Amino acid sequence: MIDLKGQTAIVTGAGGGLGRCYARLLAERGARVVVNDLGSGAETVAQEIVAAGGQARAEVCSVTDAAAVEGMVQRTLEGWGRVDVLVNNAGILRDKSFAKMTVEDFRLVVDVHLMGAVHCTKAVWETMRAQKYGRIVMTTSSSGLYGNFGQANYGAAKMALVGLMQTLAIEGAKYGIRVNCIAPTAATQMTRGIMPDDQLSLLRPELVAPGILALVAESAPTRAILCAGAGSFEGAHITLTKGVYITGDPPSAEELVARWAEVMDGRDETLPENCFAQGALELGKAGYMPSQPKGE
């Protein structure tokens, strides 16, 4: 039984859709929940949680406003004393082919998804380090992991969140902070009109929410990318193939092209522990075993 009694959770973009389901489920498991969103939905969801016997408060602010986010976290600490869980869920769409997309729409989507998550995470990071406990979830997407026509801005922002997660999981490990990503497939305001109605009926947000619970539990993993939709859960990985070593100084580009299939062969691929794994593999094949630089 995943029990969150005594914990405080902040869920962004929680005025509807996935965020609402996350907030309600966390509250059902005993967490005090800060429901963040831009509109009146935040207050509505907070009232729903309180009416069901839970504890919740609404915070209406944009995750793109770093000062407002800092204020939200400060009020949370003043009222409830700690922040244990942060679910970075807030997001928007501005879909167009790259040829027709404005730089302003590209920047706006990156600001909300990536910088919004940065602002929220930065605001809780020192608190989580001091209390030596924290669970943070970034919301990535199959559009970032695998691409989707018309979503260059969204895909770029969503893949950037994977990179953010990878590093923060490493930096937070000794402080008891675990950081993961979820890639949801769900029928929300953001996906209506993109997928057929018969598919959307099977993709209720409630079927994704248990994935969040698993990622914020005391026993949660770290550096995981959990895909979730329609009651199905999968893991996504960024792996490294064994590759080839090409002699020469410099190596022959023609030989690289000729051996391309070997380079991309997924057999014996590995899941690197950190960024130094790539260099270690390459230097090892060249006959040199490097030492790994030490972090903080």
Identify the notable features of this structure and list them briefly.
296 residues, alpha/beta, 11 helices, globular
Overview of the molecule:
Helix content is 42%, strand content 15%. By secondary structure, it is of the alpha/beta class. α2 links the parallel β2 (32-37) and β3 (55-60). α3 (66-80) packs parallel to α4. The longest helix has 29 residues, at 103-131. The protein is globular.
Brief rundown of the structure:
It contains eleven helices and eight strands.
Low-confidence stretches: none
For the biggest β-sheet, the strand order reads 3-2-1-4-5-6-7-8
What is the arithmetic mean of pLDDT?
A: 95
Radius of gyration (Å): 21 Å
Overall outline: globular
Q: State the separation between the terminal residues, measured CA to CA.
A: 35 Å
